[in-house]
Design brief:
With about 425 residues, this protein is α+β, with helices and mostly antiparallel strands. The protein has 2 domains: about 1-55 and about 265-415, no CATH class; about 60-260, no CATH class. The chain contains 15 helices and 14 strands. It has helices spanning about 1-15, 20-55, 70, 80-95, 125-135, 160-165, 200-205, 210-215, 235-245, 260, 265-300, 305-310, 315-350, 380-405, 410-415; strands spanning about 60-65, 100-110, 115-125, 140-145, 155, 170-175, 185-195, 205-210, 225-230, 255, 355, 365, 370, 375. Strand 2 (about 100-110) and strand 3 (about 115-125) form a beta hairpin. Helix 2 (about 20-55) runs antiparallel to helix 11, helix 4 crosses helix 9 (about 235-245) and helix 11 runs parallel beside helix 14 (about 380-405). The longest helix has about 40 residues, at about 20-55. The radius of gyration is 31 Å and the shape is elongated. The protein starts with a helix and ends with a helix.
Length: about 425
């Protein structure tokens, strides 16, 4: 019963001091709304960033031979049997989670023409599967992408074409070390030219038909990597665990998530995450100080009230509990309103994306990915729960000191206090 009385006193005090309560709650509401908006924007940006990078790279997860990640050498490849098994396992175990899966055969070599020579990475791809996997065909600026039935066609970057003096229909030679250890050349004809605005890709990547690469390099049915594109990067860990369990008895195949297969991208995303955490820490600090200031000023302005409560029978500790319960009630109500406001604001005004093109280069790239200036917010239940939890913690902690101050008020002094 005493607890119910204390709670009623706290709620009544909130109602009697509407202006003070509104100002205190406003800090928490705005803080949580801004937190949900910024967090959803960061999550959406990261997902777009990761998706762009893995489409141009090894996918959300990759099945490779042990040692290939470190050496990137044709010696460390999956033979035809393991390649077929890897594709079958991806199809059977991951099923609906897979947007696309493609076998690739990659080798480092030298592209040359009458104009010059440039070191390149040649990737043998299945044109049909690659069109569903990567978006490189969307970067077409001239000619066409590879088609089924192509044999000697190549899809090259604009910068590479410029350096070698190539155009659509022009021929050039790529030279690399084959599986037999010999250095052999392959004559190719440019089918199309792409531009991703990522320097290392536009200058150093060539796509050729997978069967042409296998024949040229002497690796029938083989692949250096089976790349898998999932619905979301958040599904990567579960998918990797499932495939590793299925392949636990096969030491000739390793399964890597995008964080392991693309450590530079992982580092970039983590750095950006830490920047978000710093911003949110500053935001939490501002909210906590606002709440603390409002509650302390409230205590200092209500000394006579607390003196009367203690004269009527409340103990000093119960007086402190009244102030503490006020803070908890305000925090809980503000948390719900702030969360609703954050969702409503973000969804109403930015569900189609927030355009940052006025503040950044529309062709900006980082860690092998083109950064889209239009960021679409993404709501994640886990992040929302964490935001609400921390705002509640901040409100609770900010209520402790004012409660302690209220519990230490001297009744005689408080009653004689002349307002």
């Amino acid at each position: 019963m005493r607890t119910a009385v204390l709670l009623r006193l706290a709620l009544r005090s909130i109602g009697r001091n509407a202006r003070r309560s509104t100002l205190t709650a406003a800090a928490m509401v705005v803080g949580l709304a801004l937190l949900i908006f910024s967090r959803s924007l960061a999550d959406g940006g990261h997902e777009q960033w990761i998706d762009s990078a893995v489409r141009m790279g090894v996918g959300h997860l990759a099945l490779q031979a042990p040692g290939y990640l470190e050496r990137a050498d044709l010696e460390y490849r999956l033979d035809s049997a393991r390649t077929a098994r890897a594709l079958a396992l991806v199809d059977s175990i991951l099923d609906s989670r897979v947007r696309a899966a493609a076998a690739r055969l990659a080798v480092h070599g030298l592209a040359s023409s009458a104009t010059g020579a440039v070191p390149v990475r040649v990737e043998g791809v299945d044109p049909r599967l690659e069109a569903a996997f990567s978006d490189i065909d969307d970067k077409l600026v001239e000619g066409r992408y590879l088609r089924e039935g192509d044999r000697l066609q190549a899809f090259v970057g604009r910068e590479l074409a410029r350096r070698l003096g190539l155009g659509v229909g022009r021929r050039f030679v790529v030279t690399a070390q084959t599986a037999r250890g010999d250095v052999e050349g392959q004559l190719l004809r440019v089918a199309g030219i792409f531009e991703t605005h990522v320097q290392e890709i536009d200058e150093g990547l060539i796509h050729i038909p997978l069967e042409t690469a296998r024949s040229w390099l002497g690796t029938p049915g083989a692949a250096t990597s089976v790349a898998v594109l999932l619905g979301s990067s958040r599904e990567t860990d579960d998918a990797v665990a499932a495939l590793r369990e299925a392949l636990s008895e096969d030491a000739g195949v390793v399964v890597l998530g995008w964080r392991e297969a693309a450590p530079e991208l992982d580092s970039a995303v983590r750095i950006d995450d830490w920047g978000d955490y710093v911003f949110h820490t500053v935001l939490f600090t501002i909210v906590a100080l606002a709440i603390l200031n409002a509650m302390v000023m409230s205590v200092l302005g209500r000394r006579r009230e607390f003196g009367i409560l203690q004269a009527l029978g409340l103990t000093p500790a119960e007086t402190g509990w009244v102030v503490f319960l006020e803070g908890l009630a305000l925090t809980a109500a503000s948390g719900l309103v702030g969360m609703a406001l954050g969702f409503a604001f973000t969804w109403t005004f930015f569900r189609d994306g927030l355009d940052f093109s006025a503040f950044m280069d529309t062709q900006m790239s980082f860690s092998g990915a083109v950064i889209d200036p239009v960021i679409i917010p993404e709501f994640r239940l886990q992040q929302v729960a964490v935001s609400v939890f921390f705002i509640l913690i901040v409100g609770t902690l900010a209520s402790i000191y004012p409660a302690v101050r209220a519990s230490r008020i001297d009744v005689a002094e408080a009653m004689s206090f002349d307002r």
